[in-house]
Design goal:
Chains A, B, C, D: This is Oxidoreductase. Four copies of one chain form a homotetramer. Chain A contains 13 helices and 14 strands. Chain A is of the alpha/beta class and about 400 residues long. At the A-B interface, strand 6, strand 7, strand 8, strand 9 and strand 10 of A face strand 7, strand 8, strand 9, strand 10 and strand 11 of B.
Amino acid sequence: MTRKLRMGMIGGGLDGFIGGVHRIAAFIDGKIDFVCGALSVDPEKATESGKALFLQPDRIYTDYVDMIQKEAQLPEGVRMDFVSIVTPNFLHFGPAKLALESGFDVVVDKPMTISVAEAKELQDIIQRTGRTLALTHTYSGYPMVKQAKAMVKEGHFGKIRKIVVEYPQGWLARLTEKELSSGAEWRSDPTKSGKSLVMGDIGTHAAHLAEYVSGLRITDLCADLTTFVEGRSMDDDGSVLLRFTEGAKGVLMASQISAGEENAVRIRIYGEKGGLEWANEDPNNLIIKMLDQPRQIYRTGNAYAAPYTLSSFATYNTRIPSGHPEGLLEAFANIYRNFAETVSAKREGQTPTDEQLDFPNVHDGVRGMQFIDTVVQSHASNEKWTKFEG
Amino acid sequence: MTRKLRMGMIGGGLDGFIGGVHRIAAFIDGKIDFVCGALSVDPEKATESGKALFLQPDRIYTDYVDMIQKEAQLPEGVRMDFVSIVTPNFLHFGPAKLALESGFDVVVDKPMTISVAEAKELQDIIQRTGRTLALTHTYSGYPMVKQAKAMVKEGHFGKIRKIVVEYPQGWLARLTEKELSSGAEWRSDPTKSGKSLVMGDIGTHAAHLAEYVSGLRITDLCADLTTFVEGRSMDDDGSVLLRFTEGAKGVLMASQISAGEENAVRIRIYGEKGGLEWANEDPNNLIIKMLDQPRQIYRTGNAYAAPYTLSSFATYNTRIPSGHPEGLLEAFANIYRNFAETVSAKREGQTPTDEQLDFPNVHDGVRGMQFIDTVVQSHASNEKWTKFEG
Amino acid sequence: MTRKLRMGMIGGGLDGFIGGVHRIAAFIDGKIDFVCGALSVDPEKATESGKALFLQPDRIYTDYVDMIQKEAQLPEGVRMDFVSIVTPNFLHFGPAKLALESGFDVVVDKPMTISVAEAKELQDIIQRTGRTLALTHTYSGYPMVKQAKAMVKEGHFGKIRKIVVEYPQGWLARLTEKELSSGAEWRSDPTKSGKSLVMGDIGTHAAHLAEYVSGLRITDLCADLTTFVEGRSMDDDGSVLLRFTEGAKGVLMASQISAGEENAVRIRIYGEKGGLEWANEDPNNLIIKMLDQPRQIYRTGNAYAAPYTLSSFATYNTRIPSGHPEGLLEAFANIYRNFAETVSAKREGQTPTDEQLDFPNVHDGVRGMQFIDTVVQSHASNEKWTKFEG
Amino acid sequence: MTRKLRMGMIGGGLDGFIGGVHRIAAFIDGKIDFVCGALSVDPEKATESGKALFLQPDRIYTDYVDMIQKEAQLPEGVRMDFVSIVTPNFLHFGPAKLALESGFDVVVDKPMTISVAEAKELQDIIQRTGRTLALTHTYSGYPMVKQAKAMVKEGHFGKIRKIVVEYPQGWLARLTEKELSSGAEWRSDPTKSGKSLVMGDIGTHAAHLAEYVSGLRITDLCADLTTFVEGRSMDDDGSVLLRFTEGAKGVLMASQISAGEENAVRIRIYGEKGGLEWANEDPNNLIIKMLDQPRQIYRTGNAYAAPYTLSSFATYNTRIPSGHPEGLLEAFANIYRNFAETVSAKREGQTPTDEQLDFPNVHDGVRGMQFIDTVVQSHASNEKWTKFEG
């Protein structure tokens, strides 16, 4: 990169949580400047938040359309390069479409939209414009997840047979949406959240992780969704039997009523020769279990000798030496950093490397929306298996 | 107990593995004498094994019918009190029936039989004779599993919503049945093993554990069974969506092709107020996750003060002080010890305590066979849900 | 073994704890019969305990001298083969000496005696009589401790540089000796316990473990002992800097006031090429950390392929398949089993194998007493280093 | 803060490692702009690094004196506010002194200087000028370390008795200083590193952590230092017995030859009522072990209800929700953020809060240098105890 990229943000006022995560992820490597924002639909909050975040007054906007149009008219060396969209789900599509069509690249929180139709339209725009879109499926940003993917790809475990992926949380074990402005309110409103609460909010993370690491794709599924908490208008728990390409099978569990759990994302994959295990709450350990061998724990940031050498994808996404834990913010930042380098390379007429291109994109976004649709359809059906049309 | 009980054993020659486990479990507390055995269908092996195990030559039998009949004719102070049946599944029913009808109590390895019909016949005999049968669902013998059950029962977690129980193993990731006399051979022969390999061998353990700890019963299920290893004649992996009484839901996974796993039994239960987690490979820790509280780890053998006092069921089944790990053999021995004390009490005209009666019995055996049947039926069906008729 | 060995027990009445552990350890493998006992100095308790443990009335003794003399006069096929001595420390020497001199072999709890002089006298008797004595330094009985020793010995870690061994407990964080008949009373009485409470009770375990695994011997030490609990008459905490043969160094910590700890024995050894870590509270995992390689976890009971094959010492002392945890009782039982096989072999004119001979013996007992002496001497000295005269 | 602070950096060229850590720590919260640097003593490296880090060409300096003098002459709204000093130890004092005396605040890597005299001079300058200095003892920046400190302070554990703090690493198990430009070279040169390699590089971290969490101060110590690796000119391992104020005792271990260890900082503190345990490699768990209670695990970012409510110091230093791991970079960033807020508050005439003031300062730096001195003095002495004159 010959210069820092300039970021505008849509959503992410100081009363929310996810905006701050995106900002940290953008700031951490010193390669992105935060130059403008339409940080809230509430003009007062937008202004206050912009000031508190040290934006120049004339680049604090109260409306995303206004921001995109005005920024587009600023001189090239000044105007933002991309927008980061951190609004509730139903407000992803509009800003993303307008930004892409106005010549800006886009980072958008997951799920990408609230319908497959919207997702496909974004995909079409990308195809047409050649712009870049990053989707923040955080867990794929971890070095040890990338190491897992690399080892599966190189055949370390042989043919993959079984995938178990789970995302238990407990924060919706109570009717949180009435209690506090926690983000639970809009999430449990289908017009704002999409067809499934649990699958939109966390199930797509799990599905993406399973496909990302295994390199396989879900072909059929059988889902059971539940609303456990009385008074809630959407599902808060779901279990899904999975069938994958190449004969693999699996189970996906996503739950927001697993009281006492925090963000216990975990994936286990078993092949003919061995298995792997990775967990978000202990993200610097990748547990490898080969037949006839002691268990191995690959740890972030190590300069192992061959044949244990960590994959270039793992090392490219690691910032500090082994034993010094990196966490979710660094995984998140890897998506931003790789996106920024890809955008820079493309703008400077270069070809991004495979490592730079390694972030979730618009196709992952489409697939996520299809996953939600298929799960909801399966849940409503008495047939055991529903085809995943992807 | 005013005297030791005398045990005969059917199966359990020195070439197998499970007989040794049963013997250790019987010996450990010094309350059971091993007096006779029909240890193998091969007379030579039976004799050799009997000698090596220090049986008196005249009480080494080569045939279980012979043993039961001869022992029945010995004087009361000499003859065996109960038999322990550790043969392959298809050889459980015959010896159990004959023993019970000959006035002996019975310990039998799981699954209890190879069909629901056999299981129900044993249930009838028990009902008729008043004899005692213990089924070695080992995991329910652990103190921290008993603590978990007690806490669920006392309402510590509120109404139960979600149960995830799993038993991944890797030992059948290869076609072990052709390679060595590992017990894989008869296990993968449906005439000897029953309708399902994976569910008979380990799935019933998981199902029993889920019902034992939660106090709920499975009402409906949706199963997907797979044979992953080429050349194997029975299933080696299964995933099941569960519905329980009182509106709880769950997932059961049993797998013998999870390469690299050993015996990673694990159960997680979530209620309205919190959740619990227990794992066989770390059995002295019971992880309690309550809403709004730090996680707690209840550990075997502690004299916690109120309100943390360990349940009488946990302490009754613990032999040594905290920090000194007890393992599977002690859990197994708890079944034997409680069975022996129950049998002694009944024979001496006393009422066994609730703690003594706390071991898997013939009803659990029937339920296990029904579970296998229902899973197999569900797997064959295109309907999503199959009723568990129990 | 062509027949079971017959055990008598001195101490171990039902009001104590350690007797039960010894009995389980003796019973578990079905190779030892418990035939007589002088279970308490209180005749009533001795009798009650003997009955409850199903001893024949005429072999319940109330005095160890009486027991040893009477048993010696019983016919060879009846009389006990060995005694297990589980009395307070000051009552180890007398029974051990008399038993050995009367032709019986001996198992004795640690520390072997209450003085170096006593210990050396037992060593002399052993030398003279050829009898066998086992000392129950439990932790050396674990399969993964034996694996660690084997790997050090074969040079897996290169030259050893650093050894950290620790045994923190919390049970004496309060003045327990006044509160209950917990064994704290005699332990904190120097006439019954020996020169150091913390070093006698647990420090010798740690010292033995360090020397057992490393194959090195302590040559110099620098100790700081403390009595933290007001009203206690002996030390309850000690930290020791160590120097070993071959230039290795180390630290030993033994503490009974580490409130909240249970029996957190842990050893770490570092050589030129890598390190190992093992902990009593997670005893089936041996963590291996080699330079330039992922961490490895060797687990009990696995049939690893070369070059990972578990040592014969590890496998010989394992009873059940991997993933099924074994615990302290099995480690303890390994000492009994190996002792019994050694005694049998010697009595039958055979040479015990190296695996059978692998239990702590009278020389370890002498060394333990010397360790206590040296620590106490160092504590009293202003010199930094005190020579370990062993 | 009404505006971002402007940072200059001394040292930290792209060929090193620690500069990058400081920059991430400074950038992560978007409150600090990186405006100038003298990034290397090699002018070419300085220039290249400055460009790569997007500094304006006229603020890329090749000499720290030049930088400080020129920046001091820039207008108030432009010139840097503070310098971050990330040079080898022997180059801390000069830049720090000049910066402070030129009106700039200072962040400096540890150990603060290479002698007690230098450290005390900085302390005097601070006293005289009222400037602010932050010392990057990273581990005290973790939320769960702050929670531990808060719980000790509020008396949760009663009077503190025992402190065990350790920092084992393995990266100097080989003669790394000859092999690569790893920072091992200057670290093992006493003229650049100070009196002790192991104590300067990591021992001071451990000593600071022990005093920070316990609130106690070391009064006496007994040290053993070793150079294990042939050809190395400084110590690479040290073990120290400690005595603290109020009668507490402890052990400190710092080792760079613990082959296979990464950065396994760990602290355990035991009081009359219970103990705590925290480890850098699992930093979001604070293990609490109270007498008579199940273990508790306090985890970063939780909104526990009373009486478990996390301390304001823990929550103030947490960025994301529970279950999403934060790591070393966030701990490091907490020092920068708190320093920046303190500096801003003081410059704006406000009183910083206790939370903002919670970062290691010049007094900690002096104490660190005294610790190194005392350890080296003790090592050279035959007396058991050496007074810590602090």
